[in-house]
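In full, the data:

***
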Amino acid sequence: MEIKRLIVGMVQTNCYIAVHPETKEAVIVDPGDEAARIEDALAQTGAKAKAILLTHGHFDHIYAVNDLKKSLDVPVYAYADEAALMGDSWMNRSKAWAEAMTVTPDILLHDGDELDLAGFHIRVIHTPGHTAGSCCYYFEEEKILIAGDTLFYESYGRTD
C-alpha cells in the first residue's frame, strides 16, 4: 500500500490518497481543499480513483469533494450521522470561514460496515465526539487506521 499525504487548505488538513499496488486503484480520504493539487498527486501515482471517503463533514475535510466527484466520477462515502452537517453550510462551518458549500454523500455508512474498494478491505468504525458522525477507516490487511480529527498529533481530537 502506498499512502500519499497532502496538507491542504487554510487550516492545513491531512488529505490521503491510498493506492493499492496490485490494482493501481486508489481511494481519496478527506479532500479538504485544492482539488487540482489532489488530482495532480493522484496522477503522479498512476492510479485511478475509485471513491472518496470522508471521516466527517467539517468544511476543511470536504471543500474539494464536489469538484473531485465531478472530474473523477467517483462516489462519496460518509457516515450516516454526518449527512445533515454536510448539507448545511452553517453546520459544516464553510459559511463562517469562507465560501458556503454543501456535500451530499452517495453512500451512507454505519458502524461495522465493511467496504471492498480499490483492492482494499476497509472497516468503518464510528468514533463520535469531534462530530456526531465522525468515523475512522481501518484498512485491515495493511493494519492502517485513518482517523480524521478523532486524533490529533500528540492529543485526542477536539470535541464539538
